[in-house]
Structure formats: C-alpha cells, structure tokens
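Quick one: structure tokens for this chain, please?
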Amino acid sequence: MNPELIIPILGILAGIIITLSVFIWQYHDEKGKREAIVEIAKHLNNPSKLEELLTIFDERKKEPIDYRRSGVITIFVGAGLFLLGYFFLGNTLKGVGALVGLIGVGIMIAGYLYPNTEKELTDAVNKFEKK
C-alpha cells in the first residue's frame, strides 16, 4: 500500500467510525429507557400514571428557542470566521464569515420581531387588543 494514502484513508474511516459509534451509543442509551417504560407499564393499571411516567422520561426542552441568544452566537461565529479569513486564509473565508454573521443578524432580528416567552406573548396580545 502506498504510504501517502494511509492518512487520507484513516481520515475517511475515522469520520465513518465516529458517526456510527455515536448512532450505536444513542440507540443503546434509549433502549434502556424504553425497556424500563415497558416493564413499568406492564405493572400499572392506571393510564393517567402511565402518561405521568412518559412525561418524566421526556427530555425535550419545554421552553421555546431564544432567537436573540442564537443570533448573537451566530454573529460572533461569523465574526470569528471573517477574522480568520482576513488574517490567515483569504477571501473565501472572509465571505463565509460575512455570510454567517449576516445570518446571525437575521436570526436576532427575528427574535425581536417574534416574541417567544409567555410574558412576551401575553404583552403582545394585550397591546393588540388595546388597539
């Protein structure tokens, strides 16, 4: 085998191996939870308690996404990419950084245009009803 090809082949294989191992790890992590829910459900007679149990295992976030926070993070990622291109890697990365930064500006503007917390939604409805 050509020694010059070893590093690119290992790089490709590492990407594939890491991706597959994450999927396998996630599957086994969720498998234990599913088995626990099935075992508990076998012994429960009350359906309301089963619904309560399912909400305990539900790990999804209950709060809405804060677009203002996401926008600021995206702006600074874009600024970092732009500066990296400006000082080291050239015009292409400067363009990518500017694009990402402007996407962050758009996300932040969307965060101010569309309220996302319960208080902000209630205030927006109250202002609309007063008109």
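The CA atoms of residues 83 and 89 lie 9 Å apart.
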